[in-house]
């Protein structure tokens, strides 16, 4: 029977929704995404979560509640690990339990446990178990798995071609090869820019559910563009570039996104890459707090000091304060470019 699967527009939706959608649609299901984050969504999430939860987790609860009554099941995966010997935030590991406890009225939750810390076999088993909720035909599940992988690979290529996840999702049904040729965005690095073009290039670091969410991220990417900056996020860098830069750390960071943040930050702070580096972080995020400190130290050590600033957001953050800090940051970047 055809069902409607709800997807909260929060947390790692910005990385994996194209794959999830391809998987469920291949099995004949309908996918329904919650609306954009608003103050009402945040407020509803705050009411049902503990004070210690970070803003993105509160927003996720609000999005789940907004799907109540509009879908048959809500997809809330238990994300433990997406690669070997590395892990996702503990709050994401316990997300299905928090949602069940906090979000009353939600009919059913699909909560596969995605744990690839040792190998991918457990992940494949979970994928087939999820597929069996809708079909007993293993061949159909295998086809759905393959389509999900293809959709994800294309999505990653679009990110590395210079699109944000939102733009990449909008282009899902368009001609990808033409975009790769005509995008004008570099793939290998952000160095080697045209010296005659004085528009500053700003490297932006942050979890996808902050910088790509216009409400949580205070429209920072759009504001930088309006200020004349060319924005490069960490997702636009090749994985090998980020991993090589992250290797500078004395100890390997075992949080997957944390290591990406650190590697991209080290790369952005190297001479000849970007003109300024901005980090967006959520209050109460432990890994982000020490990564910000490491990047501050790296910025101070750099031969060519790349301006670096961290903006921490929570439910009390106002746009006026963020805008003032952005304007001051861009002034510093402009002065540093004249050296």
Provide structural commentary:
This protein has 339 residues and is of the alpha/beta class. The protein folds into two domains: 4-165, 3-Layer(aba) Sandwich (Rossmann fold); 186-337, 3-Layer(aba) Sandwich (Rossmann fold), CATH 3.40.50. Helix content is 48%, strand content 13%. The chain is built from 15 helices and ten strands. It has helices spanning 13-26, 39-48, 55-66, 90-93, 95-102, 121-131, 138-160, 165-170, 176-182, 208-211, 220-226, 239-246, 256-268, 286-301, 319-337; strands at residues 4-7, 30-33, 73-75, 78-81, 108-110, 113-115, 201-205, 230-233, 276-282, 308-313. The chain has a four-stranded parallel beta sheet, covered by helices on one side. Strands 8-7-9-10 form a four-stranded parallel beta sheet, with helices on both faces. Strand 9 (276-282), helix 14 (286-301) and strand 10 form a beta-alpha-beta unit. Helix 1 (13-26) runs antiparallel to helix 7, helix 12 (239-246) crosses helix 13 (256-268) and helix 13 (256-268) runs parallel beside helix 14 (286-301). The longest helix has 23 residues, at 138-160. The protein is globular. The protein starts with a strand and ends with a helix. Residues 175-189 and 191-195 have low confidence and may be disordered.
